[in-house]
Write a structure and sequence with these properties.
Blueprint lengths: L1 E2 H11 L12 E4 L4 E2 L1 E7 L2 H9 L4 E6 L12 H12 L3 E4 L2 H5 L5 H9 L2 E6 L5 E11 H12 L4 E3 L5 E7 L8 H6 L4 E4 L4 H10 L2 E4 L2 H4 L2 H14 L2 E4 L7
Parallel strand pairs: 4-5, 4-13, 5-6, 10-11, 11-12
Antiparallel strand pairs: 1-3, 2-6, 7-8, 8-10, 9-12
Helix pairs in contact: 5-10
Length: 249
Amino acid sequence: MVKINELTHYTQQLLQVERFKDYCPNGLQVAGKAEINKIVTGVTASMALLEAAQQANADLILVHHGYFWRNEDPRIVGIKRNRIAFLLKNDLNLVAYHLPLDAHATLGNNAQLGKVLGIELTGYSGDSNIIAYGNLDKPITLYEFVKKMEAKLQRTPLVIGDLQKMVRKIAWCTGAAQGYIDAAIELGVDVYISGEISEQTTHQSVESGVSYISAGHHVTERYGVQALGEHLADKFNIKHEFIDINNPV
């Protein structure tokens, strides 16, 4: 077992949380039992994940999307009340890391997604190095790349661009990072990947010649939290289980 304070202190240092101006508190959000024997990881701290984690005998639930977001209603009512009541009743710790988990150079969502897609990571750009970029080992058509993504992620992405265009240099940022497309264009990439798309993203892609792939918010952010969970399990000799609560967005 490991003390919750020891685990969270280590993770705060590992992810360099102090570097980020985030939209939510990073680290321990709801305190439960003092000693941790098993971590359950997931993308979002939904009630479905909380219930599954409790059934899996978790002591700590580690997620990318936790609670207490900037500008949300601060009252503990409705869905928020039900979730927090469940955590407290079952003495479960909730730990969440948002932007620090996106950006970590090896365990982060961006690094892990690049690894899954076979992109050789060559650098980071943007605020807090939030945009990753790299190269495929050889040029292929956009169509071939999309089919590879579909097979790896088990999801059909939305694609803007000429499917017969040859592509090699890729930029990406997981989640709802379509707003970074201008920064990706400045990098001179062939393709920019994120999790969601906005109306204006289509026009930016078409007019710049940089293809855009909306691969899914949830699916692009499944991998960092798993990598972090495995790392912590190895570090502290505790158990880890990833539970994927499917989300079509």
